[in-house]
Specification:
single chain, four-stranded antiparallel β-sheet, 10 strands, Nuclear Transport Factor 2, Chain: A, 9 helices, 2 domains, two-stranded antiparallel ribbon
């Protein structure tokens, strides 16, 4: 793997407060949790219980999905699980949005962070390039309450949320930046990261994010329920 100083140095994946050293370990635990929720028959949706281990893992998992904003849409109302029709031993994960629409998402992609399209890879690389800023804010913030609902965080690290939506920051940056890269390296968890050849572009984005991003600690539920528009 090519070294990249803009990649996150975090070697682990955190889902529901549990730390996994590899995507394989994260997928194994997600699979085990999903299996416990599978209904008896195929085509039957089961609502994942609120504040359960699986729900907390899925909230963190969706944050890692390479098409996060597309999947969240109007905002996450709840998660659904059903058996795959073609492979009844496998679990399908779905999001029911706050507007009533539903969409499936790959929990495996959430564990690996692997992006497919160039646009998804670019968004992944942009997120990973500023991961150190996000982590630094998380560990230095002294907030005890969610900045959205004002309820206690109760020791839950929650999500670090962009007050100005991340997509808005990206759009503003790309409107004045040189053409973005179209090829990327793989990071420690298979996520797309910038190549050393694109260090100048990555550094400009990191500096832009440091100047303009406004961060706050919120519950995962609050963060993902407001949708991709950030309202």
């Amino acid at each position: 793997m090519t070294a990249n100083r803009f990649a996150t140095t975090r070697p682990s994946i955190v889902l529901g407060g549990e730390v996994f050293g590899t995507p394989t370990a994260a997928m194994a635990e997600l699979r085990a949790q999903l299996t416990e929720w599978l209904p008896e028959g195929t085509g039957v949706f089961v609502v994942v219980g609120a504040y359960t281990t699986l729900e907390t893992m899925l909230f963190d998992a969706v944050e890692r999905h390479p098409a996060r904003d597309e999947k969240i849409g109007a905002g996450v109302a709840r998660f659904l699980v059903r058996r795959n029709v073609k492979n009844p031993r496998a679990a399908e994960t779905w999001i029911e949005r706050v507007d009533g629409s539903r969409i499936d998402f790959s929990w495996r992609k959430c564990a690996t962070g692997r992006a497919t399209s160039v646009a998804s890879k670019l968004r992944s690389a942009l997120r990973e390039a500023v991961r150190s800023q996000i982590d630094a804010f998380r560990w230095t913030a002294d907030a005890t309450r969610c900045a959205m609902c004002d309820r206690k965080l109760d020791g839950d690290p929650g999500h670090v949320d962009h007050i100005i939506p991340f997509e808005t920051l990206v759009r503003d940056f790309l409107s004045t930046a040189p053409p973005p890269p179209v090829a990327f390296d793989d990071g420690d968890a298979c996520q797309a990261i910038f190549r050393p050849d694109d260090a100048t572009f990555a550094a400009a984005w990191v500096a832009f994010h440091a100047r303009h991003a406004q961060l706050r600690l919120v519950h995962a539920r609050c963060n993902l329920s407001r949708g991709r528009g950030g309202t």
